[in-house]
Design a protein that fits this description.
Length: 117
């Protein structure tokens, strides 16, 4: 029997840190939108600071989305078994409290919320 040879080329993607993730769906697919939000400030410029948002989108069929959810759930359980329960960082709690106070004050003043701090 003759052996067939197959050449496989693997193209690695760039490393991507996601600060935010949005998940949406339609009847045929789930859309995972991973976002990296990076402030760009040039101290030499007199213009306003710029915020750069990069997106990496992954689309999967509903069955595969369910399998990803199961896999992620299992991995988190293994992680917590080995390293302990994953808790919200204290810094995030502090920032959420500050944002809540700020938002409460804005609501009282009937001002529009700000998304940039």
């Amino acid at each position: 029997m003759e052996k067939n040879k197959v050449n496989v080329n693997i193209r690695d993607g760039q490393v991507f840190f996601a600060h935010e993730t949005a998940v949406n769906f339609n009847p045929t697919q789930f859309i995972f939108d991973f976002k990296c939000v990076t402030p760009r400030i040039d101290i030499r410029s007199k213009e306003s600071p710029c915020i750069s948002i990069d997106h990496d989108v992954v689309m999967v069929e509903p069955y595969h989305a369910k399998k990803i959810a199961e896999l992620l759930n299992n991995i988190v359980k293994k992680y917590e078994k080995e390293f302990g329960k994953i808790e919200k960082p204290k810094q995030v709690e502090i920032m959420e409290k500050k944002q809540k106070k700020k938002t409460d004050k804005e609501v009282k003043e009937k001002a529009a919320p700000t998304y940039f701090g």
